[in-house]
Write a structure and sequence with these properties.
Butyryl-CoA Dehydrogenase, subunit A, domain 2, Butyryl-CoA Dehydrogenase, subunit A, domain 3, binds flavin-adenine dinucleotide, single chain, four-stranded antiparallel β-sheet, Butyryl-Coa Dehydrogenase, subunit A, domain 1, globular
Length: about 400
């Protein structure tokens, strides 16, 4: 396999440039101002979707771009590098799109993928709901249940921190449909639930993250879904979820890489232009070296992200690389943002310079979709063969 981060073929370079040109027409001021007034990045999403970028990884036979996670990674990185990191790009096409494409029946794919692409008269987004307050990082403990009764599944329970529910038309919900006594674990299944399904309610969770997408707690009170809303095999949900979690980690890493680029670009520009002792501040190694270091970590993270995307698209095991990419990208992006703030001095904290407003998103992606510590657990156990610690 050739790792071609600087030698992308013409098609990928064109994709990168097209997304970058489009997203830069919106830019960070658009993104931040919307977030501050509680607005949604609807125009940006629609413009990206019109260009086919939000469905670049979905199967061509149902109207998608027919490309892979590598291409979606380019989209996520360039949108973030323009100062507009969109969480729903990670959720809707990366997680939900990947899971429905891989595990949906032919009929389900025919229904859902054209909707995600926007070919069914109206364009849908799909949120993803696995996290529960009590289960936390331990997905085996998911306690929201789905019980089959007559010809429907009845869902009961709650979810927390679910992104973009108010922008989505449907939610891919992970629910428990059984219990494996031998392993002491819940058997999980995946259901597509309409956001306006009777019995489903939501409550905003205010956060300090500057983002147009908002987070919600969800409450399911006998929410009925028909059999055709079960995606894949009942009880195999966690295995199926893992198919979506690698794209989530890889595109999350790409988003972080874009945030890192955004911050470093601004920091370097500022360090070249600002003089307080007759020379540009970038002349001082106290400013230049940390930026150079951040650049090195960022490029390493981009390389691992590319590797993870290539492995995933080649149908190979991408778990280790996806985890490492997300870990490395979160650390690199936070380093870039922090050093960009430092480089700007007092201006680093201003709204005008648009650096500090990126911190919350980068910081979030160190916690979600999988935390730094759970990645270290994974690497310790799976890469180093150390005993499981939890
Ligand atoms: C803004 C935002 C958006 C989100 N969007 C979504 C979404 O769209 N859909 C969705 O399903 N979820 C979403 N989440 C939830 C997110 O995925 C979880 O917050 C994350 O997985 C961590 O789970 P937790 O918050 O329950 O932390 P906990 O599991 O309670 O962990 C708390 C701390 O303990 C550490 N820890 C836990 N277990 C171990 C262990 N065994 N070893 C070492 N350390 C450990 C963790 O790393 C963490 O630092 C979102 C969260 C936020 C904040």
């Amino acid at each position: 396999m050739t790792l071609t981060i600087d030698q992308e073929d013409d098609e990928k370079q064109l994709l990168r440039k097209s997304v970058s040109d489009l997203a830069n027409k919106f830019g960070h001021t658009y993104f931040r101002e919307l977030a501050l007034v509680d607005g949604r990045a609807h125009e940006l999403w629609e413009a990206l979707a019109d260009g086919g970028f939000t469905s670049v990884n979905l199967p061509a036979e149902f109207g998608g771009g027919g490309a892979g996670i590598t291409e979606l990674t380019i989209v996520c990185e360039e949108v973030a590098a323009a100062g507009c990191p969109l969480l729903l790009l990670i959720v809707s096409p990366a997680i939900c799109g990947s899971i429905v494409s891989e595990f949906g029946t032919e009929e389900q794919r025919q229904v859902w993928i054209p909707r995600l692409v926007g070919q069914a008269g109206r364009r849908w987004k799909m949120a993803f709901a696995i996290t529960e307050a009590d289960a936390g990082s331990n997905s085996h403990r998911v306690s929201t249940t789905a019980v089959h009764k007559d010809d429907a599944w009845l869902i009961n329970g709650s979810k927390t921190y679910i992104s973009g529910v108010d922008e989505a038309e449907a939610i891919l919900v992970v629910a428990r449909t059984g219990f494996d006594e031998e392993r002491g674990r819940g058997e999980l299944s995946l259901f597509v639930v309409d956001v306006d399904a009777p019995g489903l309610s939501k409550q905003l969770i205010p956060t300090e993250i500057v983002a147009p997408e908002k987070q919600y707690a969800l409450f399911f009170d006998n929410v009925a879904v028909s059999d055709d809303r079960l995606i894949g095999t009942a009880g195999q949900g966690l295995r199926q979820v893992f198919t979506g979690l690698n794209p989530e980690r890889i595109t999350g890493a790409a988003m972080l890489n874009g945030i890192g680029r955004y911050a470093l670009d601004r920091a370097a520009e500022y360090a070249r232009g600002r003089s307080v002792w007759d020379v540009p501040i970038g002349t001082h190694q106290g400013i230049a070296h940390p930026l150079a270091e951040a650049k090195i970590y960022l490029e390493l993270a981009r390389l691992m992200t590319t590797k993870a995307a290539h492995l995933y698209d080649a149908g190979l095991d991408a778990g280790e690389a996806a985890n490492m990419a997300k870990f490395a990208a979160a650390e690199a992006a936070l380093r870039c943002v922090d050093q960009a703030i430092q480089t700007h001095g007092g201006n680093g904290m201003s709204r005008e310079y648009g650096i500090a407003s990126m911190w919350g998103m980068a910081r979030l992606l160190r916690i979600a979709p999988v935390s730094r510590e759970m990645i270290l657990n994974y690497v310790a156990q799976h890469s180093l063969g150390l005993p499981r610690s939890y």
